[in-house]
Amino acid sequence: MGQDVRSPRGPRCIALVGPFQSGKTTLLEAIMARTGAIRSAGSVELGTSVGDSSPEARRHKMGVGLTAATTSFMGDSYTFIDCPGSIEFAHDMRAALPAVDASWDGLVSFYSLIHMIDDADVRAALAEFRRVLAGGGLLLLAVHAGEETRHLAEWFGAEVDVSFRFFDLAWLGAELERASFTVESLTRREPYPGTEVATPRAYFLARAV
Question: For 164-179, what is each residue's pLDDT tens digit?
Fold first, then answer.
């Protein structure tokens, strides 16, 4: 008897992503109708779709949040996530990594937290790092060490409005632990003279637990 080489059966999750008006919700309607989850495909224009069903989405005729819909096909369960595609939502993705849960074995973050002035933003970023890392995965995190925040109104001859955060290392280590990491090592160094900004640096090596 030949060996069954198909993937093991189980629930599957598929994200529908793309720019505004690319047809994601219309595709979801067609899939749901074709697989028998709904009697017939709805219409975004007419306000009868499964996706984009909130009052605000109906009013704007566009997605303003995620829509999850589940159906079955050939004995397998599929959940589709219809993601909004309008450019206005890009800012809300600033701390989101393009990866599914527990899919990375390692992540390097060099000074990517320095513009996150609010503690809540830092915690959200660390939680996102942990989300994409598999158990035992490693995070290498570099920051400027200290307890100040520097603000610039002029940079390279141009007007700017940008702030740079220095991190208290004990606080950041505790936040890593809070985000389900174990700090395996912490390395401190002074800046390289004449080649970089004169600020002390710190490198955390942390393991996802």
Answer: 999 999 999 999 999 9
- Does 120 lie in the same domain as 64? no
Same domain, 16 and 73: yes
> For 189-203, what is each residue's pLDDT tens digit?
999 999 899 999 999
55 shares its domain with 85: yes
Average pLDDT for 138-162 = 95
Separation of alpha carbons 179 and 177, rounded Å: 5
Instruction: Indicate the residue type of 59.
Output: R
Helices 119-132 and 169-178 cross at an angle (nearest 10°) of: 50
Q: Give dist(CA 104, CA 136) in Å, integer.
A: 10
Indicate whether 1 belongs to any domain. no
Are 179 and 145 found together in one domain? yes
Distance of alpha carbon 165 from its chain centroid, rounded? 21
